[in-house]
TrEMBL record:
InterPro entries: CFA/CMAS, CMAS, DUF7884, SAM-dependent_MTases_sf. GO terms for molecular function: methyltransferase activity. The active site is at residue 387. The keyword S-adenosyl-L-methionine applies. GO terms for biological process: lipid biosynthetic process; methylation. Keywords: Lipid metabolism, Methyltransferase, S-adenosyl-L-methionine, Transferase. Coiled coil: none annotated. This is Class I SAM-dependent methyltransferase.
C-alpha cells in the first residue's frame, strides 16, 4: 500500500467535526502526522490511530460506524485509552455530515485515498428462524468453546442478566441471587417438574435441583452445551433429577407435562413472527395451575435491524437476533392464552452484569486471545461494553415476566408481590 498523504481538506473536516466533542482527542495518521483537539494541557482521553488511509475515505463516503468497527478488528484503525470514549467518538465521527462548504472538496480529495479491503458480508442460508437456521445461529454464538466463556462468566456459567442488591455485589453473588429469585417467583417445590427452554450451560436447572428438589429438563440448540451439561450433571450427581436435550422448542410435547416453565435469555432468538409458536408451545406443555417465567431483552423501539447496535450484534454476535418492544411481546403472549401476573424491569441490572463480564474478560485477555484470536477478542470486548452503554442509555431493556394460564381462572398466588419476591 502506498503511503498517501493526508489531504488538507480531510484534516480540516476532522477539526470541524470534532470541535464540539466533549473530550480531548489525539489522532495519529499513517505518515506519523498527529492532530490534537481539545485542551492542549490535558492528557487525551483517547488516542486514535488511522493506520490505513481508507478509514478516512470510508468515514467521508459511508459515515457508517460499522465500517470503522471492521477496520478496528482488522488492524487498520486502533485506539488507546478509554473504550467508552472511543465508542462515542467513533459514532460522532461517522454520523456528522459534511457542511456544504466542505463537501465537494473533501469528497474529491477522499477519492485519492485507497479503499479499505473490506470483505463482503456472508449471507446465511435458509429461511430466517427456520429450525435449521436457528440452530446454526445458536451454534455460531455458543460453540466458541466452554473454555472461552469460563474465563469471564461466573462458576455456574450463567450467561444472562444477574440481579444486584447494590452495585458493588460480586458477580457470583448477583447471579446466585438471580437464580434463587427465579425459583421463588415460580414457587418451586420439591418433586415438581421444571422445563428450561434455552437452558444454556444449565445453571438454572442445577440450582433448582440442588436447592428446591425439582426434577428438570433443559433444551438447547448447542451441542457443546449439551456435552457440558452432561459432564456437570454427572460430576454433581444429579442424573436422577435433571437432563438436557438437543431440542428445538417447536418440538416440545404438546400435552401438559411440566409443573413450571422457565425461559431465560431465549426469547431474543425467537423472532416476532415466531412468538405465537413460542408462547403456544410453552403453554401447551405446562400443567394446569403452573407458572411460566419469561426473561428476555427487549427493544425500546420497533426492531428493523438498521441501527448501529442492531447491525453490530446481528453481524458479529447473534445472527438473526431480533429484539421486540415489550408491548407486542406481551400482546402475543396474551393472544395465545397467557395471563400476565408480574412484569419486572431489570435494565440497570444488565448494565452492571455486562460491565462485570467486560472487566473479567479484560483481565483474561492473554488467555482469551490464545483461545479465539485477537479479532474475536476485540469483537467481544466491544460488544460487552457497547451493550452496557446501550442498557445505561435506555436503548435496550430487559424484563422478567411471570405468567399463568388464562384457563386457570381461580387465583392461586399471593395477593402482593413480596409474597413471591422474598
Amino acid at each position: 500500500m502506498g503511503q498517501a498523504t493526508l489531504p488538507i481538506a480531510l484534516r480540516n473536516w476532522l477539526i470541524t467535526t470534532l470541535q464540539d466533542f466533549p473530550n480531548s482527542v489525539e489522532i495519529n495518521f499513517w505518515k506519523d502526522q498527529t492532530l490534537k483537539l481539545g485542551e492542549k494541557t490535558e492528557e487525551p482521553s483517547v488516542k486514535l490511530f488511522f493506520c490505513h488511509p481508507g478509514v478516512l475515505r470510508s468515514l467521508v463516503f459511508q459515515r457508517d460506524p460499522l465500517v470503522l468497527t471492521e477496520a478496528y478488528f482488522n488492524g487498520w484503525f486502533d485506539f488507546q485509552g478509554d473504550i467508552e470514549t472511543a465508542v462515542q467518538l467513533g459514532k460522532h465521527l461517522a454520523y456528522r455530515g459534511l457542511k456544504q462548504s466542505q463537501g465537494i472538496k473533501t469528497w474529491l480529495q477522499s477519492l485519492k485515498l485507497p479503499r479499505l479491503p473490506l470483505k463482503p458480508n456472508v449471507e446465511q442460508e435458509g429461511e430466517v428462524h427456520s429450525k435449521e437456521r436457528d440452530r446454526a445461529a445458536i451454534q455460531h454464538h455458543y460453540d466458541l468453546g466452554d473454555e472461552f466463556y469460563q474465563l469471564w462468566l461466573d462458576p455456574e456459567m450463567v450467561y444472562s442478566c444477574a440481579h444486584f442488591e447494590h452495585p458493588y455485589v460480586p458477580l457470583n453473588e448477583a447471579q446466585a441471587h438471580k437464580l434463587d429469585l427465579a425459583c421463588r417467583k415460580l414457587k418451586l417445590e420439591a418433586g415438581e417438574t421444571l422445563l428450561d427452554i434455552g437452558c444454556g450451560w444449565g445453571g438454572m436447572l442445577r440450582w433448582a435441583a440442588k436447592n428446591y428438589g425439582i426434577k428438570g429438563c433443559g433444551i438447547t440448540l448447542s451441542e457443546k452445551q449439551v456435552e457440558y451439561n452432561q459432564k456437570r450433571i454427572h460430576q454433581e450427581g444429579l442424573e436422577d433429577q435433571i437432563e438436557v436435550k438437543l431440542l428445538d422448542y417447536r418440538d416440545l410435547p404438546t400435552t401438559p407435562t411440566f409443573d413450571k416453565v422457565v425461559s431465560i435469555g431465549m426469547v431474543e432468538h425467537v423472532g416476532l413472527k415466531q412468538y405465537p409458536a413460542y408462547f403456544d408451545h410453552a403453554l401447551k406443555c405446562l400443567k394446569p395451575g403452573g407458572l411460566f417465567l419469561n426473561h428476555g431483552i427487549t427493544s425500546t423501539d420497533a426492531w428493523n435491524g438498521s441501527s448501529l447496535g442492531e447491525r453490530f450484534i446481528n453481524h458479529y454476535i447473534f445472527p438473526d437476533g431480533e429484539l421486540v418492544p415489550l408491548t407486542p411481546m406481551l400482546r402475543e403472549a396474551e393472544e395465545v392464552g397467557w395471563e400476565i401476573v408480574d412484569v419486572d424491569n431489570w435494565r440497570p441490572h444488565y448494565a452492571l452484569t455486562l460491565r462485570s463480564w467486560a472487566d473479567n474478560l479484560a483481565s483474561k485477555k492473554a488467555e482469551a486471545v490464545k483461545l479465539i484470536g485477537e479479532k474475536l477478542y476485540k469483537i467481544w470486548q466491544l460488544y460487552l461494553i457497547g451493550c452496557a452503554i446501550g442498557f445505561e442509555e435506555n436503548q435496550m431493556a430487559i424484563y422478567q415476566t411471570l405468567m399463568r394460564r388464562q384457563s386457570d381462572q381461580k387465583w392461586n398466588l399471593p395477593l402482593i408481590r413480596k409474597g413471591w419476591l422474598v
